[in-house]
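Record type: monomer structure entry
Structure origin: computed from sequence
Chain ID: A
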Amino acid sequence: MFCPRCGLDNQDNYRFCRNCGTGLGPVLEAMGRSGPRSSASQPLTKEALAQTILRKIEEVEPRKINQTLEELSPKLDELLLTPEEQRLKRIRSGIITASVGLGAAIFLRLFFGAIAMAENDREGALILESFWALGMVPFFIGIGLIINGLLFTKTRQLEREVESRKRELAQIRSEIEALPPQQEEYITPGSVTEQTTARLGVPEYSPPQPKSKDTAS
């Protein structure tokens, strides 16, 4: 018996943990044994409860566990089937049932037809020949299962995926239509030497001065 606080393994007749002194009353009650509940007992932790459950599982005979799993296996397989797998399963069952019914109808028709030919009574021969129609009952049942799987069984998962894709496409289309019309602008590329060539200084222009007469003589 493990302590719920420190995890120490104690004997079954201990009421308190040998290491930390925690009351083992809840553990004893969970294990199905009688034991006084102390006022200082601590609440049962998840780890201690899990260990108790595992110990109980180990006490069960393996044969009973295997028998329980075999009984639950078909139900679990049925629950884990997707809607598309369930639809295919119905169609497969319908094909098998219809095939069995058609084969039975052909066999009964040939068998009772041969018996009717050997009989001298015409009315009895007609009755025997009509027995082949019994094989058509499972045939039509199988046809009904196939129609149910093809037309009336809705694949909800596929429908949800298709609807979500349609909504996404509609949203993308609305966003594209809301964009302004694109205008093409041609930008003249700048010169490579525009930023690298130094600008030369240009002297200021001054008009020429007229020459005086003294200077001319």
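Annotation 1: Residues 30 and 52 are 7 Å apart (CA to CA).
Annotation 2: Confidence is low (pLDDT under 50) at residues 33-42.
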